[in-house]
């Protein structure tokens, strides 16, 4: 009954778009690899300690790949220390200066975020591509509706799906002309409809991995909603090999939202999936505060499992049957605890949160031990 069991319900199946696979450091992207979750640091890259501290928090949240901006020599000079300290591959964000791309590749970046058509002459492009090849560096082409090339804006009159796709194809051709194929592509826009249409068209035109994002999505709540609508639409259609939720929030929050998005679609499993009611006058305990506390205290759990927290017996028993651990509000401060969908015992108000945390930790340990036994037997 754990959350990572494969579904036997065909109406829940998502058939992913077939893409070729590349490597970003030691992380496979595309093909049949899991959809990776990315974020980006917002510290000064030239301050390696602050940047590494932020990367650590993102690693704890489960980030697979992390991007750092390299706008100047001081940043690429610090990159070697950052790469050495990071447990996940580093993408160096390069915009216009080709030398920063070369320096980042030589400093150990696993990937360069760069648009080859924006960094100058063919000779400069060749230097960056040669540096990427020499250092085993992938490239991420990052087309953005807010910074489309002038000729495309003149041709189409405004940012549109066709303009984003044409820009992406132009940049792809430059890399292919240099016999470079270790690349992934993004065609981001802040407008959900524009982004979804552009990604859908690009998915039909190329076989490379696609990096999804709704750029400049907004704050934690608004940006989460906007990203979930746009990226969720694409992921549900099987499009997307790696994602970044762009929020005006701390990077680790982007990681958590990304995982929740993938968990909701059954595409990744990590940590506790909480099923909870919005609460009403029937609730036997403070559902909202209880869920907030449990989510905070269970962030350290990485093993996939499910927990239902329901305030009363109207929907509680039904939801609890579908989760590893469940609790349903009852009268007189006594609440029913379900284990593997079966009623097991009661717990009182004062002990409830600590009790649930212990049950989840014990269940996670049990699942981990069983997994280790299976792996040992193989």
TrEMBL record:
Its cofactor is [4Fe-4S] cluster. Keywords: 4Fe-4S, Iron, Iron-sulfur, Isoprene biosynthesis, Metal-binding, Oxidoreductase. [4Fe-4S] cluster binds at residues 277, 280, 312, 319. Pathway: Isoprenoid biosynthesis; isopentenyl diphosphate biosynthesis via DXP pathway; isopentenyl diphosphate from 1-deoxy-D-xylulose 5-phosphate: step 5/6. GO terms for molecular function: 4-hydroxy-3-methylbut-2-en-1-yl diphosphate synthase activity (ferredoxin). Residues 274-361 form the IspG C-terminal domain. It catalyses: (2E)-4-hydroxy-3-methylbut-2-enyl diphosphate + oxidized [flavodoxin] + H2O + 2 H(+) = 2-C-methyl-D-erythritol 2,4-cyclic diphosphate + reduced [flavodoxin]. Its EC number is 1.17.7.3. It is an enzyme of class 1 (oxidoreductase). Binds 1 [4Fe-4S] cluster. Transmembrane segments: none annotated. Residues 19-259 form the IspG TIM-barrel domain. Belongs to the IspG family. Converts 2C-methyl-D-erythritol 2,4-cyclodiphosphate (ME-2,4cPP) into 1-hydroxy-2-methyl-2-(E)-butenyl 4-diphosphate. This is 4-hydroxy-3-methylbut-2-en-1-yl diphosphate synthase (flavodoxin).
């Amino acid at each position: 009954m754990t959350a990572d069991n494969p579904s036997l319900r065909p109406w829940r199946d998502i058939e992913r778009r077939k893409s070729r696979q590349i490597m970003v450091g030691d992380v496979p992207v595309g093909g049949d690899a899991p959809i990776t979750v990315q974020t980006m640091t917002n510290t000064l890259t030239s301050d390696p300690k602050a940047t590494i501290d932020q990367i650590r928090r993102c690693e704890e949240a489960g980030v697979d790949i992390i991007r750092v901006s390299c706008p100047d020599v001081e940043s690429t000079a610090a990159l070697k220390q950052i790469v050495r300290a990071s447990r996940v591959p580093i993408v160096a964000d390069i915009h216009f200066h080709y030398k920063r791309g070369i320096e980042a590749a030589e400093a150990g970046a696993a990937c360069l975020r760069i648009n080859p058509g924006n960094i100058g002459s063919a000779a400069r492009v060749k230097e960056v591509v040669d540096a990427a090849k020499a250092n085993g560096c992938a490239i991420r082409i990052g087309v953005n509706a807010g910074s489309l090339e002038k000729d495309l804006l003149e041709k189409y009159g405004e940012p549109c799906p066709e303009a984003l796709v044409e820009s992406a194809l132009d940049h792809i051709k430059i890399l292919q002309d240099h016999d470079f194929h270790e690349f992934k592509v993004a065609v981001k826009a802040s407008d959900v409809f524009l982004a979804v249409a552009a990604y859908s068209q690009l998915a039909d035109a190329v076989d490379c991995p696609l990096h999804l994002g709704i750029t400049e999505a907004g704050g934690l709540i608004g940006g989460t909603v906007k990203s979930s609508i746009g990226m969720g639409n694409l992921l549900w259609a099987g499009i997307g090999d790696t994602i970044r939720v762009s929020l005006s929030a701390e990077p680790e929050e982007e990681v958590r939202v990304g995982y929740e998005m993938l968990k909701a679609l059954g595409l990744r499993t990590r940590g506790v999936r909480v099923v909870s009611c919005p609460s009403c006058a029937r609730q036997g305990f403070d559902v909202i505060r209880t869920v907030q506390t449990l989510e905070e205290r269970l962030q350290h759990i990485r093993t996939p499992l499910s927990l239902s927290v329901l305030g009363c017996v109207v929907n509680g028993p039904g939801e609890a049957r579908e989760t590893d651990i469940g609790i349903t509000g009852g009268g007189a401060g006594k609440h029913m605890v379900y284990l593997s969908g079966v009623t097991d015992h009661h717990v009182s108000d004062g002990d409830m949160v600590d009790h649930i945390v212990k049950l989840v930790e014990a269940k996670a340990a049990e699942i981990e031990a069983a997994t280790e036994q299976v792996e040992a037997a193989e």
